């Protein structure tokens, strides 16, 4: 079925330079006569596979609009190291899609970044909730444009497993655990937990903490203004430990979870031989369920919002990739044009149609998304406005919140292995955080 274009004003979007951005004025990328013809724009990002292919469609649309040739480099997960080595080698990319707030701040404080243009700033003010500008800014200067977002407060489930257990999508955390035990009693463990990938465990903690402790405490902990030994942290770990310690709720128990990576956790729910009824993670679960296992999203793979914990509000935790311009990039004009283009609903619509993508740009019509489930997750993200909180581990120094085998990732894996002492885990987290933030 053909999708409707992003808004009525874009019902006939053209990729000429005079195209009008949905809900805004003329797109400034490149000027009026393909002024970037003959020039090359280099872009680096963590993406590979399907994500890289879909982002290439955005790059191709930019080429059609401006005449610029594009070169893409996949950095892998260690963006900071790869970009740093390229800068030292005199081969800096023009634009980097940065996946962590902490890394964006690190780049800015090292003096690697050029502020975004006033035109991009105006587009952000008009199309984004203020929280996204805050996450893209350092000391009041806007360096990062959040082009791609993730909704990390979604729990994915098998409707067949729920039907067999006689349960419906829950609205509260305790109800979710009760429903999970009913699923287990009907023949499947409740959750596939991707404990081999420590980042998934940070996401579990963050949703519980945001709902239990509230956004003010969440922000303070993210900035390390309160210690990880704070009672609110111990309370959230205790709540998470109730799940981790219940073998009926976790496929394979703690040992099985620690041997399951993120794609494997999705396979355990939506693969050919289901081993669990639910998997918690972001909207990107849908892409794996659909592309790798042929599930029809909304029919035999569905989601419910991460439920509110014990009287708190339902959390909305997000992540995202921000476009930044490097000072040492060789083509500043193309970089400015590209970041201005990414700020338009037109650019977001290209990837939204391809799938596996959410935009924080509220001017993008949700009709641009390819299915009802994506539209629902996009609407939830936009509706949350400033209540959205960015992934806490992504705001931390990478040594604490974003490195395999150390810091928060490792300590929460240890907690999954033995969740009997939340206070001791909190103390270990504080020791690691204090060292990383001081460094």
From TrEMBL:
Pfam families: SBP_bac_1. It comes from the Bacteria. The keyword Transport applies. Keywords: Signal, Transport. The keyword Signal applies. Residues 1-21 form the signal peptide. Belongs to the bacterial solute-binding protein 1 family. This is ABC transporter substrate-binding protein. It comes from Streptomyces lichenis.
């Amino acid at each position: 079925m053909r999708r409707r274009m992003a808004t009525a004003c874009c019902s006939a979007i053209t990729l000429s330079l005079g195209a009008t951005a949905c809900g805004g004025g003329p797109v400034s990328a490149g000027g009026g006569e393909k002024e970037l013809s003959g020039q090359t724009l280099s872009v680096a990002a963590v993406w590979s596979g399907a994500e890289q292919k879909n982002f290439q469609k955005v790059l191709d649309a930019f080429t059609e609009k401006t005449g610029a040739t594009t070169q893409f480099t996949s950095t892998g997960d260690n963006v900071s190291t790869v970009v740093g080595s390229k800068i030292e080698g005199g081969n800096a990319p023009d634009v980097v899609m940065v996946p962590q707030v902490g890394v964006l701040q690190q780049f800015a404080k090292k003096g690697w970044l050029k502020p975004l243009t006033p035109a991009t700033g105006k587009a952000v003010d008009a199309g984004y909730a203020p929280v996204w500008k805050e996450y893209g800014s350092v000391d009041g200067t806007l360096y990062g444009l959040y082009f791609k977002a993730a909704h990390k407060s979604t729990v994915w489930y098998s409707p067949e497993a729920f039907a067999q257990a006689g349960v419906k999508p829950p609205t509260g955390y305790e109800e979710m655990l009760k429903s999970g035990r009913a699923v287990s009693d009907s023949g499947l463990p409740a959750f596939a937990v991707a404990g081999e990938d420590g980042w998934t465990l940070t996401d579990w903690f963050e949703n519980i903490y945001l709902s239990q402790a509230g956004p003010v405490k969440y922000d303070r902990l993210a900035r390390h203004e309160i210690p990880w030994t704070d009672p609110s942290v111990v309370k959230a770990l205790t709540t998470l430990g109730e799940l981790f310690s219940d073998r009926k709720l976790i496929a394979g128990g703690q040992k099985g979870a620690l041997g399951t990576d993120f794609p494997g956790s999705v396979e355990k729910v939506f693969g050919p031989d289901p081993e669990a009824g639910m998997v918690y993670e972001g909207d990107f679960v849908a892409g794996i369920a659909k592309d790798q296992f042929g599930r029809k999203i909304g029919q035999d793979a569905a989601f419910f919002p991460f439920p509110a914990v014990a009287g708190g509000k339902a959390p909305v935790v997000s992540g995202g990739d921000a476009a930044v311009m490097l000072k040492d990039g060789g083509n500043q004009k193309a970089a400015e044009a590209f970041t201005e283009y990414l700020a338009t609903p037109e650019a977001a619509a290209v990837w939204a149609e391809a799938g596996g993508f959410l935009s924080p740009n509220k001017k993008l019509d949700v009709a641009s998304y390819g299915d009802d489930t994506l539209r629902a997750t996009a609407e939830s993200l936009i509706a949350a406005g400033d209540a959205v909180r960015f992934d806490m581990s992504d705001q931390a120094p990478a040594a604490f919140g974003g490195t395999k085998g150390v810091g928060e990732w490792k300590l929460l894996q240890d907690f999954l292995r033995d969740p009997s002492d939340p206070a001791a885990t909190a103390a270990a987290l504080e020791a690691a955080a204090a060292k990383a933030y001081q460094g």
